[in-house]
User: Fold this.
Amino acid sequence: MAVTKHESIKYTLSFQEALEQVMGGKGWAQGEHFDDGVIMMEMGNMFIDGRDYLHVHDFKAERGNQKSDFWITKNLMMQKFRIVRTQADAERKIS
Assistant:
């Protein structure tokens, strides 16, 4: 049986649990099917009324270290997630 590239990384949180962790300031969320370097993160006080919102952040240089809105899809909600706190962890360079 083939060993996957990131088999040792554990994804144990549901979508709802991951959102709660992110909105609670515990770190960034990464789904088991996300590309290396892609996370969901919170941006605070981005609106005049001070609301927080979630976006997708991509650390990969070739994609311009970009931030974008994300679509909540059935596939996204069915994934398992983990919390990461560093760019290296988000890029799956450490386990």
